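Minutes, project check-in

Agenda point 3 was the complex the collaborators sent over. CS summarized: two entities, 704 residues total, and the question is how they sit relative to each other. Sequences were read into the notes so everyone works from the same version.
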Amino acid sequence: MSLSRAIERYLPQIEAELRAALATPHPALAGFYGMMQYHMGWTDQSFQPVQAPTGKRLRPLFCVLACQAAGGDPAHAMPAAAAIEILHNFSLLHDDIEDNSPLRRHRPAVWTIWGIPQTINVGDGMFAAAFLTMGRLAAAGVPARLCSLAASAFQETCLTLTEGQYLDMSFETRPEVELDEYLWMIQAKTAALLGTATRIGALLADAGSDIVAAYREFGTAVGMAFQIQDDILGIWGNETFTGKPGAGDIAQRKKTLPLVYTMAQLKQRGQPAALARLLALYEAAATDAGAIHDVLEILDDAGARRYCEEQVAEYQELALSHLARAAGAPGTDVEGLQALRELALSLVGRQA
Amino acid sequence: MSLSRAIERYLPQIEAELRAALATPHPALAGFYGMMQYHMGWTDQSFQPVQAPTGKRLRPLFCVLACQAAGGDPAHAMPAAAAIEILHNFSLLHDDIEDNSPLRRHRPAVWTIWGIPQTINVGDGMFAAAFLTMGRLAAAGVPARLCSLAASAFQETCLTLTEGQYLDMSFETRPEVELDEYLWMIQAKTAALLGTATRIGALLADAGSDIVAAYREFGTAVGMAFQIQDDILGIWGNETFTGKPGAGDIAQRKKTLPLVYTMAQLKQRGQPAALARLLALYEAAATDAGAIHDVLEILDDAGARRYCEEQVAEYQELALSHLARAAGAPGTDVEGLQALRELALSLVGRQA
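CS then shared the predicted structure for the full assembly.
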């Protein structure tokens, strides 16, 4: 099965599962669920139906395709796939407040329309809805034993996500960040959820623990590649594609991989003065476009962009080797595997 | 068993369960879990151990005592009791931001020390930790069937809490709120969690569904009495006891039961001019101490305080009748029941 065929088949099912999970249960709560529905790209600010960008539903696709590839019934993975996407969207709601980001998918972020207090609470509601959606696995015909394993994996990942977000924010208030700390942070903040998507997919196919681990490591490596790609776009991305201002991560003084790598390089080469100048420029970058320009020049000199692109390629290769290991299991569904592989490859070189 | 004996027995166990659930798993995350530990009353702002006010751990006590009263093993309820307390504390973290409250239990609220972005995320971490703690029921020896029922009850309540918080905040931006809307809001925001505490306690004792329902309705009615008492304290409370400024709910323009009742009275008596004056004074109360004084006078004239005190007494009576129904079950533990009854009664007439 080609990726486009898989998307055509599964995306409407995923979207239906998501809409059912976030449907308004009572007219008095129309505003509450309306904010969720706006955030998901289904309505405008007056809660009228629109076709707005929804995001690519990558995580649920990884979950459902991992289930199929591991020989399971994709229908069994639907509630988990939806839960993972709701969890991801909850974290975006809160991230946009925490990062002071006014735009999400080319539209005003929820907090810019309804304010921070309501948006914190809407995020909490989506967090709760994600757990309730995981709870629907039993009704989808999944045996209790697998429901319980999937729920544990999901719970652990929720906590890991917040640990990653903590590290990310704490990096902003520290002058220096080491490479290994940075990789831990993106593993927790981004890669863990993709790893959980493929892990839970394989779990729900009742794959053996080695195979479940291989799918998880595949997803995690894809997540690392994905996040480093995002770091590249955060500095050198084109606003038209990303919906975010160019060099935004520098203006926000986010310490992403290009900067962390450059700092490590300057340290290794014994250039403390250059390192101090870089940090000072970075501090000034919030309000000074000239400083942003100088930072970009230093990153280029250090070869930061090339390094990051190599990292993306390496994690992608690692991902494919884990997938090849997973594919060794008896009962592997070749069509699902092919679509999953194509999905992973489609993430490299993406523009947004 | 007397209540003080029950507190002496169970509180240290609850506290140990809470500390285990929120222990720092890695030195790099000391700041993240440290913020949780500060909020729980275990450390100061430098993360050094202190004995600060922790709150009364009412919800976990209700859970454990309901389990004992229904004939179960209280040890089986400990993870659920801790999960409920963590959930409650997560909601306080976010509520303090949403309500712009600088104090929590006589100390600076987390957001005033570490800022809003970190506090949103710490709350999310506690939310996730609450689910993980519920997930420990199986390890405590609870059969899978009961774990699953308890998890569902817990998940539903999480979503209900956020619905209640939405209604509460949306009332602030509307001129008028009806009595029945208001009661729905406090049911969702406060009473549901106490009802869930006693419901899950009885569930984990494997009580029959009628008895589980009676414990739930008992807890819910206690929660209603508790919240209306809180509304009374929010306007007529003494700052020394509550840790919050007097008449704070008026200055914050919160529409709590005394105001909602007074509005309903003025409407019923056909006094639109008096109603309009009250609403105008309430709008002005944020910055005008004279307006607060005038609002208090109007509430007194309408008999709002007496009405609220009667409501507290009625819900308390309702709670005791549900408890009497629950006590009819064979296998009821009389000592647990007595302590539970005493705990409910201790909430009436509380000062903070």
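Noted in discussion: The mean pLDDT of chain B is 93.
Follow-up: revisit at the next meeting once the mutant set is ready.
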